[in-house]
Design brief:
410 residues, seven-stranded mixed sheet, 11 helices, 32% helix, alpha+beta, 20 strands, FAD/NAD(P)-binding domain, eight-stranded mixed sheet, 2 domains
């Protein structure tokens, strides 16, 4: 063992949940160490949808104006194209929030921004290139982690360890927390295609018989997702990249002049979709939040926002306890109780969409698709667009900043 660190809270994982919790705890005067195994946050095809509920938190923190100076795109409506018919399915203009839009921002910009806010406080320590590899147990209680860092093997002793290390969480595995696999009928192939000023406006979902194609406007390029049946990636690759390009052009003809940017399969990334949830999110001295506690489907793009909401709830409940000493097991249980309902409700809705919409579409490869009844209803009665906008934009139990802020460093 080369070095040792002591802290009130050690957070494993520098994603949205871990970074936001670290910032909020430090802002409340709690000494915190955040471990991120990579040297930076720069990775493609991570979630980058910032919903109005998260933007409202930025407003409550007094940093919204500064946050929106970062490169981003704003979308005030959600539209879907089924065969040759386009329908607006969500209208955010009526939400009771300061920002009535979805913001699309690269996740690395979001994480860098939160890191900068945290680093205003001396209690915040972000250690990059630091990979947690094991938990430290002491008398049945989790007492910290062992991590590979740039200083060698490091032992971080903490009153509370938080697993925020994603759907392949080392923390929840080593803590032997029971995982409930809720199933997913699909995977997603992600890629980039350049965007031109004359391109049509954003239509998130393009649906045809047997195919679902997602396009997100990233200003200079389209971030595209080609939805495939679970485990079907090898079959598609075996058809060849040229056939894959043809299928994309059939769904989005306006990219025919640039689909050749997908030179080979190295330009296409596979997202293996998982939907699961921990039965119990905690042990003495340990709490899991974000994807570590509940891996979400990409349906609705709500992953970042659920993770951030977890972080806010955890900070609201735990910051006073950690500032005074250590969080009790009952406090950790309170975090799970607070966040379990919105997690369950969101996953239930995602699974319903997966099973009742996406699975039938992917298995429907012969006859042309017709506009579903619910979409015809939304088209006929525009007021109904407010319902999906509310569910997606705000969620089932939005959190608000309840922690008090100490003065940052000068």
């Amino acid at each position: 063992m080369n070095t040792a660190i002591e802290t009130r809270c050690c957070i494993v994982g520098g994603g949205p949940a871990g970074m936001m919790l670290g910032f909020l705890l430090a802002r409340s005067g709690v000494d915190v160490v955040v471990l991120e195994k990579h040297a930076d946050f720069l990775r493609d095809f991570r979630g980058d949808t910032i919903h109005p509920s998260t933007l409202e938190l930025m407003y409550e923190l007094g940093v919204l104006e500064e946050f929106l100076k970062r490169p981003h795109q704003e979308n005030r409506e959600l539209a879907a194209q089924v065969a040759n018919e386009t329908v607006t399915v969500g209208d955010f203009s009526h939400l009771p929030t300061h920002c009535k839009f979805l913001a699309f921002m690269p996740q690395w910009d979001f994480l860098n921004f939160v890191a900068e806010q945290g680093q205003r406080y001396p209690q915040f320590r972000l250690k990059m290139q630091s990979e947690a590899v094991d938990l430290i147990e002491d008398g049945g209680r989790i007492a910290g982690v062992r991590a590979k860092t740039t200083d060698g093997l490091t032992e971080i002793r903490a009153g509370l360890t938080v697993g925020a290390d994603g759907r392949r969480s080392m923390v929840r595995e080593r803590a032997r927390l029971e995982v409930m696999d809720l199933g997913a009928p699909m995977d997603v192939l992600w890629m980039k295609v350049s965007r031109r000023p004359a391109d049509p406006g954003q239509t998130l979902g393009r649906v045809a018989a047997g195919k679902v194609f997602i396009m997100v406007d990233r200003d200079q390029y389209w971030q595209c997702g080609y939805v495939i049946p679970k485990g079907g990636a090898d079959e598609i690759r075996n058809r060849g990249i040229e056939k894959f390009r043809e299928e994309i052009v059939n769904l989005a003809p306006f990219v025919s002049d640039r689909v050749g940017e997908l030179r080979d399969w190295d330009d296409v990334s596979l997202l293996t979709v998982k939907v699961d949830r921990l039965k119990k999110w905690f042990r003495p001295g340990l709490l899991c939040i974000g994807d570590s506690a509940h891996a979400m489907s990409p349906v609705g793009g709500v992953g970042i926002n659920l993770a951030v909401q977890d972080a806010v709830a955890a900070a609201n409940i735990l910051a006073p306890r950690l500032a005074a000493g250590n969080a009790r097991e009952s406090d950790l249980a309170s975090v799970q109780r607070r966040r379990e309902f919105p997690t369950r409700a969101t996953q239930k809705l995602q699974i319903a969409i997966q099973n009742r919409v996406i699975r039938p579409v992917l298995g429907h490869s012969s006859n042309p698709l017709k506009l579903p009844f619910l979409l015809r209803l939304v088209r006929q009665f525009p007021v109904l667009r407010r319902i999906p906008a509310r569910v997606i934009g705000i969620g089932f139990r939005p959190e608000h900043i309840r922690t008090r802020a100490i003065d940052p460093r000068p």
